[in-house]
Amino acid sequence: MGHILFAIHGSHPCVAVERALELKRQPYRVVERIPAVHVPQQWLRFRQITVPALELGNGERIVGSRAILRRLDQLVPAPPLVPADPAARERVLAAERWGDEVLQPAVRRLFWVGVGRRPGAFASYAAGSALPIPDFAARMSLPFIGRAARWRHGAGDDRARADLDALPGWIDRIDGWIDDGVIGGEQPNAADLQIGSSLGMLSTFADLRPLLDARPAGELRRRLFPDYDGEMPAGTYALTTRSAPLAASA
């Protein structure tokens, strides 16, 4: 029996888990959730409110991308998502943890700030969704979804500015890991998936794409996550002064 992945379409940690299932050649199907609406749905089924969540074919339930990747490695050892060598394993797990705890939430905050400024971009991120939501319904629900998401993820002006300021240094860090062989090898590991999926989302932000394109981090993204729904228009993140707030209220 196949697994069931509960996900939000385009969510970078969900994309990372789906790629891991593909690498492990595991049968699965996706149950899509709607942002913000997913909170009570996930609580009722998993007693946690986040995605991704995976229900294995045997009924076991796991929540969170890192926990899911560890469990997949236990169930299907090949190809491994973390190295067997203890030192290499620790380096990969440290990079994965940073990708999960630092890069992933920052990209999520920038997304919701961007949608606050450019509501029309939201539909492009749902282009490949299997949910039968008419465009007018998506437009009507966006003010509620956007406000709830920005509140929940702390996606305000000051935090967005700090994330944008930190981004060049973060890309330098990723390039350094590639140079050191921690990520970017022939066989993707857990850190590749965690970081690469966030770079996939980041590459849809027209203002920020030039930071990636000519870098090793950009090549990593193109190799692992070449197709990513959505386009945040140029100019979304250009206004960063306190007199010109980044996130307009939806």
Automatic annotation (TrEMBL):
According to the entry, every stretch annotated as the GST N-terminal domain falls at: 1-80
The residue range of the signal peptide is none
In short, the EC number is: 2.5.1.18
Query: Does the entry feature the keyword 4Fe-4S, yes or no?
Result: no
Matching PROSITE patterns, A to Z?
A: GST_NTER
Gene Ontology MF, one: glutathione transferase activity
What are the UniProt keywords, alphabetically? Transferase
One family name in Pfam for this protein: GST_N_3
Q: What is this protein called?
A: Glutathione S-transferase
Q: Which organism is it from?
A: Conexibacter arvalis
